[in-house]
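TetR family transcriptional regulator, Thermasporomyces composti. Tokens?
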Amino acid sequence: MERRQAAEATPASSARSRRAPGPDERRRDPERTRERILDAALTEFAARGYAGARVNEIAERAGVNKQLISYYFGGKEGLYRAIASSWRRQETEASTEQQRMTLAELVTSYLPRSAHQRSLVRLLFWDGLMPAGGDPGGEERGSRMREAVADLERRQRDGELADDIDPGCFLLAFMAAASAPAALPHLTRSITGLEPDSPEFLERYAEQLGRMVRHLAKD
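Tokens:
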């Protein structure tokens, strides 16, 4: 009798243990799915460029159905724009702190130190191979670059940059310098004998970039 009562009680107790997810949990699941898709898309775009990336590969990397990508982002271009917007938000959040940095500190802060940042740099270089007007994020990037040049012009007026240095050319040169280890890891190894993502290399390279920038400041 006792065993039968225990057996009869088991389904009820199991039903109680299998509660429905709460509203917060239901909200988090789509957010986690979106993040997995965006991470997979960044990896795919960085490896193949926008033109070569395949939505099927992104879905497989993320472990989701291809239709979910269309549902959340509307397709490949929407994914690309979402990545660009995420990058823009990160830069906006960092802008207040960057205003307090010296010019040398600002330049070295762009040195990509994480795998995520290195993927963004590789994607940027892939975008440079696209025909003019074929880059979905080109307009937004142009706005960011104009803001960066305006900030350098302000710093030049404040005496951080010599008068005979063109701020736009300075920005282009040091963006390329900061991006070089991520974009050209094989050359980095050949020239320095170090892995481009090793702490030893990153510390040494950041110090040297800062030294170069300080040489371009006003006397």
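The CA atoms of residues 21 and 201 lie 47 Å apart.
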